[in-house]
Amino acid sequence: MDEQIRKTVLRMIPYGLYVLTGGSQDSTIASATINWVTQTSFVPPLLALGIKTDSAIYAEASKSGDLVLNILGREQGNLAFAFFKPVPYADGRLGDYEVRWAANGAPILACVPAAVELKVRQIVELGDHHTFVCEVTGVYLTKDIAGRPDDAILHMKDLGEKVFYGG
C-alpha cells in the first residue's frame, strides 16, 4: 500500500475535536484532546471513542469508567491545542480552564458549549488506540445552538491547513 495515498485517503474522513476528561475531585484528573468519536447506537445511546493507549486519559478511563466528552465550539481551537499535552488540575481549574462536575464526578470544562457524560461499557483492545464503547448517561448544553448542531463544533480542518491526525 502506498503510504502517502493511505494518509491522504484516511485524512478525508472528517473529524470533530473534543476534550475527554476523567477522574474526580478526590482522585487524579486526566484529560486529552481526542477526535475519533462516533455514535454507534440510539438505544441505549452509545459512543465509540478512540483513546491512545499510552495516555493518562486511557489509564483513567480504564480504571474509573466515568468520563466526560467536552464538545468544543467552532472558535475553541485554543482548547484543542491546550489539551494536546497533559494539563494539571488545581484550585477548580484544569490548566487555565474552570471546571464543573458531572453527576458521575468527572470534570466538565465550563467554557464548552456542550458535554456528554459517559460510562465505559466495553474496551476493544486493537491497535495503538483502543476503542472505548461508552453509554451516554447525561448531557449538558450550556448555550442555545442556532442552525445545525454539527456546524457549531470545532473540526480538525478549522485548526489550519497543516494540522492533521491519522492516516
Mean pLDDT score, rounded? 92
The percentage helix is 10-25%
The rounded distance between the terminal residues' Cα atoms is 12 Å
Helix run count: 3
The best one-word shape is globular
**What characterizes the major β-sheet?**
7 strands, antiparallel
CATH class: Mainly Beta
Oligomer: single chain
N-to-C order of helices and strands? HEEEEHEHEEEEEE
Quote the CATH topology.
Pnp Oxidase, Chain A
Structural class category? mainly beta
| Strand percent estimate | 35-45%
The CATH architecture: Roll
> Going across the major beta sheet, what is the strand order?
2-1-5-10-11-4-3
Question: Gyration radius, to the nearest Å?
Answer: 15 Å
Organism: Acetobacter garciniae
Keywords: Oxidoreductase
Domain Flavin reductase like: 10-151
Family: Belongs to the non-flavoprotein flavin reductase family.
How would you briefly describe this protein structure?
Keywords: Oxidoreductase. With 167 residues, the chain is mainly beta.
Structure description:
The structure is a single chain. The chain has one domain: Pnp Oxidase, Chain A (Roll), CATH 2.30.110. Helix content is 14%, strand content 38%. The protein is built from three helices and eleven strands; from the N terminus they run H-E-E-E-E-H-E-H-E-E-E-E-E-E. Strands 2-1-5-10-11-4-3 form a seven-stranded antiparallel sheet. It has a four-stranded antiparallel sheet with strand order 6-7-8-9, with no helix packed on it. The radius of gyration is 15 Å and the shape is globular.
